[in-house]
Design brief:
The chain is of the alpha+beta class and about 500 residues long. The chain is built from 16 helices and 13 strands.
Length: about 500
């Protein structure tokens, strides 16, 4: 991870060979547009990809690792520098949707102003710019002429914002002849993106910067951010992934109190309860329970999860609400913490609305999902070729079942897409992202991609969205293979 961001002179080192002709045309067009708009020759090209999470949903804030991969869709920035001023002139290949902007360096203390209350595309560049210049404290950074092309669909759960911020930070480094490692770039991008009001955990930026071609990435957060490249099985025909966005958007401001915020609170309460029953100190996350209780255990990682799940089922009191969970009064008694203290601790900063807390459901999902991440990683490392695809697919399907029935973060549209996909050659189909809408990911083989995409287009999109355009369809469903992370491209 401490290696420098690579300089790559050939597109086949970034993308799968099948994607190179299309990407070559795209790069050449972007370079030509740069010259046309700015009237000068490009000096550098950088890119950083979006990501899809293959397995490990809603367990990162519980302290457990996740397993994403970088995708072909990415953000490319072409640029040149000037010493005549410190202005940034940034244009986008899609100028109608993203108008050209201009701003200036505001000095070491402030760097640049970012109004996070406005949805403004250039704010994401400003994040990367601000993060890098705060680190390097340059007296006079280079003035920049820039042209951006992004193919990661915005709002599709594929981390378009992280890809843009990482590419922007890398552009600033490259333009000013600075030296930075992949790890430093990742850490700066994580913090920098918070300038637009996104409280990022680190998975998105890690996958965008640290991924390697043909590998997934195991990202762990405790005790510190750590990543490991995971080789995906070599099969015949080759494996491939299809990502399908349901186009269902969950309005987080409206739904968070009953969805995301509530799940975070329930997992914290579950951790407190299990720690109490296991005679451990009070903790915040289920990962802390797992680490403390099995500190000196000879059991394997997966055996520990199985054991902890069994104990949890024995510890939880009877549910008197027809499987709806526990009331706040009941949780108060289980934790031996007054109701007001629980409300102050868990339900004040972020609003929570519920009559019941489903601690058993959430515990089962988090512990079984964390175990599936480990099993997925081990299956990849001990690959038996073609037979491993079924193993990985089964784990993905089990993850979706758990997300749907135990964590209750799926939705009818996600379930429909997954069912259609499995009937048309997907080995494993699941939601990817927070859920309640957003994207799905499907494991298949290279020879089946076209059939799978056609089936989802015809049986889902054209039925649910009869007025959808071909352009919107192409954005909604994409085929991809694991691509490399952030890079400086020198082959132009």
């Amino acid at each position: 991870m401490s290696a420098p961001v690579p300089s790559i002179n050939s597109l086949d080192k970034i993308y799968d060979p099948s994607a190179v002709p299309k990407q070559d045309k795209r790069y050449k067009n972007l370079l030509a547009q740069f010259e046309k708009v700015h009237g000068r020759k490009p000096e550098f090209v950088v890119r950083s990809p979006g990501r899809v999470n293959l397995i490990g949903e809603h367990i990162d804030y519980c302290g457990f690792g996740v397993l994403p991969m970088a995708i072909e869709r990415d953000v490319i920035i072409v640029g040149s520098t000037t010493d005549e001023d410190t202005k940034i002139r940034i244009a986008n290949i899609n100028s109608k949707k993203y108008p050209a902007r201009e701003f200036d360096y505001e000095g070491k203390e402030k760097v640049v102003s970012i109004d996070s209350t406005k949805l403004e595309w250039s704010n994401y560049f400003k994040c990367g710019y601000k993060g890098m210049l705060e680190k390097f404290q340059l007296d006079t950074p280079k003035g920049l002429y820039l042209m951006v092309d992004g193919t990661v669909p915005a709002g599709g759960g594929l981390s378009s914002s992280a890809a843009f911020v990482c590419a922007s930070a890398l552009a600033v480094v490259t333009a000013n002849n600075l030296s930075i490692s992949k790890t430093e770039l990742t850490e700066i991008a994580i913090v920098a993106e918070r300038n637009v009001g996104v409280n990022s955990g680190g998975m998105d930026q890690s996958a965008s910067v640290l991924s390697e071609k043909d590998f997934a990435l195991h990202v762990e957060f405790v005790p510190k951010l750590r990543t490991q490249a995971v080789p995906l099985p070599v099969t015949s025909p080759k494996l491939a992934f299809v990502i399908a966005n349901t186009l269902v958007v969950a309005d987080k401001f409206v739904t968070a109190p009953r969805n995301y915020n509530l799940r975070v609170v329930e997992t914290h309460m579950a951790a407190l309860f299990l720690a109490k029953k296991l005679n451990l100190p009070a903790v915040d996350t289920l990962k802390e329970v797992y680490d403390l209780y099995y500190k000196d255990s000879s059991l394997s990682e997966v055996e520990r999860f199985t054991d902890l799940l069994k104990k949890a089922e024995e510890f939880y009191p009877k549910d008197n609400s027809n499987n709806n969970g526990y009331t706040l009064d009941e949780v108060s008694q289980m934790l031996d913490i007054p109701v007001k203290e629980l409300q102050d601790k868990y339900m004040t900063r972020f609003p929570v609305e519920t009559d019941y807390f489903r601690l058993v459901h959430r515990t089962k999902h988090v512990l079984s999902e964390a175990s599936r991440v480990i099993e997925f990683h081990k299956a990849c490392e001990n690959s038996q070729g073609d037979s491993t695809i079924k193993t990985l697919g089964d784990l993905m399907n089990a993850s979706q079942e758990s997300c749907d029935k135990l964590f209750m973060c799926s939705c009818p549209e996600i379930n429909d897409v997954c069912e259609i996909a499995r009937k048309n050659g997907s080995f494993g189909s699941r939601l990817s992202g927070a859920g309640w809408g957003g994207s799905t990911v499907h494991l298949t083989t290279e020879d089946n991609v076209a059939k799978l995409i056609d089936a989802i287009k015809n049986e889902f999109y054209r039925k649910k969205y009869p007025n959808i355009t071909e352009e919107e369809l192409d954005d909604a469903i994409i085929a991809t293979k694991p691509c490399s992370g952030a890079a400086i491209y020198t082959g132009f």
